[in-house]
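Support request, please re-run this one:
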Amino acid sequence: MNPALSLAERTALMKAAAGEDRPDLAIVGGLLANVLSGEFHLADILVKDGRVVRLVEPGEALDLAGVDIVDAAGRHVVPGLIDPHMHLESSSLMPDEFAKAIVARGVTTVAIDPHEFGNVVGLAGIEALMRSTAGLPVRFLLRVPARVPELPDHLETPGRTIDDAGTEAMLGWPEAACLAGDISPNFILSRDATQLRRMQMAYDRGRFVSGYVPQLPGRGIDTMVAGGVQDSHVPKSVGELVANLRHGLHALLTPRPGRFEADSFAELGGLIRRGVIDGRRISLCTDDVLVHELLADGHLDARLRMALRMKVPAMAALQMATLNTATLLRRDDIGAIAPGRHADLAIVSDLENFVVDEVLFGGQRVAAEGRCTLTMARTTLPDFTRSTIVSDMPASAEALQIPVAGDRTAVRCNVLVSSHPKTLARKDLPVVSGYLRPDVEGDVLALAVVERYHSSGRIGRGFVSGFGLQRGAVASSTNHNNHHVFALGADYGDMKLALDELKRLQGGYVAVLEGRIVASLQLPVIGMISDLPAEELAGAMADFERRMVEVLGCSVAKRPMYALNFICSPVVMNYGMTDFGLVDSANLKPVPLFPEG
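Re-run finished. Output below.
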């Protein structure tokens, strides 16, 4: 919902547009990427009170005496980029550091789903987070978390609960854009009463409903859309993208390993160039970007750069990062450079490689030459967002192990496979001294999820394949969506030590080898966010990832820390691991460790 201009504000803009009052700022000489008309054309851009008031055609007389001038000659002027779906917590940055990092790349609006804050510290945590974004050089919109917690409490112990009243309150906040959709589609397909009730709350308040529609057949998509879901951020391929568009979804493209990578963009570019599909209901999206990847490769600009390099037509690609998203978000005050809209824009010297020279936010120059130029106070968050790992860790390594009765030497087990999507495999695992053991040579590691909030002592025990550690163990408190702490590894003693250190740090990542901590990274805010500046944190994160590969022998070729964060997640289809054990995400039911038959 757009914050309404007052009559006085609108009148002031009209006077400047009519030439009765001087603008505050003029961006002159640039080639405007006009995402409304689909043209690149010369135009000078006049700004008053942070909003565009005029587009001045070449040759038109213009008196700019006393007006602040930005010379954009020889460069493109593009609208500020808009990310429709992302999780600030995945960057592990405080909001100020995150804003500084992305605004220098031309990103001026993000719609965040802070369900991580909700699951760890509840509604008060989300409220504190949103308050902390005020005054930053990026517009933060809220994707209201649909279910905190997501799973019923017989499948996963909740950290915090946000009820209907809390959901309704958030939908009424001015930053609210939609009801978020990072939940199992089964809640909608099965017409869960709570989910449908909250969706209706969103409709009644003029918000839209976002979705998660992974690889569903046409009937499944139609059921979701008939229920009011309006987008999905998980198409894996162009075929799935086209199916989403045909059945009425706005498609958010979120490239990552196994999902809509460069070859898919190349295929999409060909379809758009040949006029086979219309790109107006497609947006680019980041979802989750770790800090070292953000600083090395970029944020939404990296997705735009990929699209441009893969020959998606330049105007179509820009629309996917600006106007299309503004339309989805029901915002007619951003997403384009036109009278009445916020003067959020980037001046780009190399469009194909999307090299950003300068950025304006609300008519204020906020970034130049790849760096934010504003001086701002550090973000602070309340004390209750810290020291959130309450439960004690298991008292011994034996507490992480799975006993086996009798004198068997091997037992067949259901093993979680870290793949796209996650699957189950049946593996024969060795039994030593009455306990199951991982099979490192067979790429099967031990996995334990420890309930972190209520000192229940509950531990989900099992095994995982596909992560490929050769030795040692890793523990983390980033474990979407409930963020119980977990450890995986080749050795239970190393797992125990990693969990103990994680508790001491009150969140982050720990790597252990042969009883020695070989790497650690502290994330004290909700167990996911650091106080460090972006550059320092990025270096530490990249170093931790390198040590997982070089010291522990992790075989995941692309984004191993990202893979680690989602190994247990029941939200990511089709299986997960909670403090209760294995879970069938699609059908919302437990899975026995020992398969029947």
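Residues 115-132 form the longest helix (18 residues). The two ends are 55 Å apart (CA to CA).
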